[in-house]
User: What shape does this take?
Amino acid sequence: MRLNVDWIGCKGHGLCAELLPERITLDDWGYPIIDPRPIPPELEAHARRAADACPTLALLLRTESAARS
Amino acid sequence: MTDVAVPGVAGVAPPAGVARLLEPRADRTLACHLDRYGPLPLRVDLVGELDRSGLRGRGGAAFPTAVKLAAVARRRRPIVVANGAEGEPLSSKDKTLLATSPHLVLDGLVLAARAVGAREAVVCVARGAGRVIATVEGAVAERAALRRDGVDIQVAATPDRYVVGEETALIHWLNGGDAKPTTTPPRPFERGVGGRPTLVQNVETLAHIALVGRFGGDWYRVVGTAEDPGTTLISIGGAVDRPGVYEVEQGTGLLAALRAAGLPAGDPPPVLVGGYFGRWLDPATVSAAAIGVDAMRRAGASLGCGVLWALPRDACGLAESARVARWFADESAGQCGPCVNGLPAIAAAMEAVVAGPRSADALAHLRRWAAMVVGRGACHHPDGASRLVASAVEVFADEIARHARRGPCPASDAHVLPVAAGGSWR
Assistant: This one.
């Protein structure tokens, strides 16, 4: 599973970085910097919560095959 | 299939040398075009011939053309878009090609449309190029009168914004929106104009397609190199006596191409390769590099949409780059945080480096922000800004040091590169 950002939808609320600091930090303007590595099983639930919490649904959690298509 | 016609119409000689797209002709009429080439071949395995030709797109991304056509060909009710928007300010090859050989581009458009099963196509031309638009409309009307193509062709005049030529932006505009990129997926080949599978090809690519369709992939490879076959159009400008659009055999040395455009003898200056979306190359690399996608990649650069611009002796590469950085910020579609925020920050840092006193701080910020915006947007606009600025810092290191000590040099005011503000997004 990987995290992607819909950059047009993202408004820099920053909840994602709060909920998944292991994989997401914020840049100098409040926008997410996503660690490109796959999400390990132990972080999946947290990653889902982060994606669900985004007010603009701009954080996308994709399976490997979905990310490739 | 064994009964597909072998390319090469009897009695029609394929272009012999390097003058393929810009082969001299008496006029631009359809009659003159048909006189030279004959009618379009009816049964061509276009994808197969394109695959043999090794043709890659000439819009900047250099995507294998055969693969692009094949991706659309499987789908229902596709449409083809000829991209002549040419937003890159230093590029004029698309306008020149459309003005000089409109029927070659339209041949390619029709052949591509037939190959993917499209009955409709749109030719996009920058709305500021009024005479080119008129020429294309005239050419389309000539063909419509003959009714041989089997493809309905419209002409559309695009806004003069930099990112309008980006595939998703162009499609968004054709669909009635602003000329701003959209989020992918879906990609254009899946859902584009009117929600239909859309093949977008640069107009120069279509002209090459026309020749491959008529004369075959093997013929295409007669000039050029094994990895970069054929010819390519380059817009050459800056410190050259004869600026303009040149058709160049792939594999030609960068320096040789510049000399042919009248670059004075002696060491070359730094050259902006690939336009604003490209990068500066130092004189030594300019002297060693050759034209071609793979050849340029080995030199650490890309020709992009085919631009070579030699820095004039009385201009300052650092100051010019700062102006381009500010232009990049002004041309942001304003949709993505890192771009909207990062590009003005980068521009301000560049301006501070040009001004001198806070140079060290500004350079540190510049490096940080140039790295920060890469890959973090709906399109590659921020990547272009980052690349241009990073190459300026590398190639104009001496100038940076001088400006830090003494402030802007007199050449900083030359203001040579075009950085005009764009207009409507619609």
